[in-house]
Design goal:
With 349 residues, the chain is an alpha+beta fold. It has eight helices and 18 strands.
Length: 349
């Protein structure tokens, strides 16, 4: 059963789940479900200057996935730490967990995470040098195979990841975005019953969105990955299983390079208005071959002092008000117009 068609009685439609449904360690202690060795994590009341001088960071250097007790035992013996949230929660499938290692060597740090849920998505990742974790995140659910990938880069658009987290509760999402967490858009229970499950990360430096694009084929995936782009791993054209459309973005640590606004057009008048206002558009129709109006992503960069820090997609309408309450910009124009799927672009300045 598709997540977009879940009845309200299913966990995928629940919005008022327990706020504890997030593996985020409290400031007062360190658990095995999230990790950072920054001094300011342990001592939040130190003067900012002191924090800057004494911070010593470990980076996420390895990630792994367990789908059974044998995997768990093996990963423990190899020194991995577990994030104690079941990535298959609510499905009746295998208990699946995300694991990680850390280290002080920046050159060994993971800088990007991606998810694939069809064969086409894997080709560019493979050719661009991403590492696939060969454990199906949908194991035992009857859903299509889904895999996590990672990349260790040192280029201009690579910023190390130093903390990981997992949420299984919609009310946690807006607060995490507000607090600087970056969200993998793909629901790890995509296409099956269960809770909305998302992996989150924090980077070692503050980042800003400096470029966006959109593609309606897999032909340029390798080039995009090699050029430092991150794919938002949720298809904006979910109603058409033969035409996958994805939004991409690049990050910079330089706020002066950050974009300052994003917009969505779904008719000719809006397209003309955004052109007149100096916006530029991504090439691909986000609603390709769906039967609905063409939908385009528009972006703009001005000299404003509030560059965009994060961008993602949401397919769960129940989180819209929570995102807005936490200061997240939600563009309530359906990217999959003309279908029953509701997909919204949101971003944080």
């Amino acid at each position: 059963m598709s997540a977009a068609t879940q009845p309200l009685s299913e966990p995928h439609s629940e919005v008022l789940q327990s706020p504890e449904s997030s593996s985020e360690a409290p400031v007062s202690s360190v658990r095995n479900d999230e990790f950072s060795t920054s001094v300011d994590f342990f001592l939040p009341n130190i003067h900012p200057v002191t924090r800057q001088l004494t911070t010593m960071t470990d980076y996420i250097t390895d990630v792994a996935v367990s789908i059974n007790a044998i995997d768990e035992q093996n990963l423990q013996e190899q020194g991995y730490r577990i994030i104690n949230e079941n990535l298959n929660k609510g499905t009746g499938g295998a208990r699946i967990f995300l694991w990680y290692k850390t280290g002080a060597n920046r050159a060994a740090a993971i800088t990007k995470l991606q998810v694939s849920f069809n064969e086409g998505m894997t080709e560019g990742l493979n050719r661009a040098g991403y590492t696939k974790i060969t454990k199906n995140l949908n194991a035992g659910t009857g859903g299509k195979p889904m895999y996590l990938w990672y990349f260790k880069g040192s280029g201009e658009y690579d910023t190390p990841i130093e903390r990981l987290s997992v949420t299984t509760s919609a009310p946690n999402e807006g607060r995490k975005l507000k607090n600087g967490w970056e969200r993998l858009a793909c629901d790890l229970n995509r296409g099956v019953c269960g809770y909305y499950i998302h992996i989150w990360m924090k980077r070692s430096e503050h980042t800003y969105i400096c470029d966006v694009d959109a593609t309606d084929s897999y032909g340029v995936d390798e080039d995009n990955f090699r050029d430092g782009y991150i794919r938002i791993d949720e298809d904006t054209n979910r109603s058409n299983p033969s035409s996958f459309v994805f939004i991409w973005y690049r990050q910079t640590t330089n706020p002066d390079r950050g974009l300052t606004d994003l917009q969505i057009s779904n008719d000719n008048k809006e397209r003309e208005r955004y052109q007149q206002q100096g916006y530029k558009s991504a090439d691909a129709n986000l609603n390709d071959q769906s039967g609905g109006e063409p939908v385009y992503l528009w972006y703009k960069k001005t000299k404003a002092d509030d560059p965009i820090e994060d961008v993602t997609l949401i397919v769960n309408e129940n989180v819209v008000q929570d995102y807005k309450k936490n200061g997240i910009n939600v563009i309530e124009k359906n990217l999959n117009a003309g279908s029953n799927n509701k997909i919204y672009l949101c971003f944080k300045n």
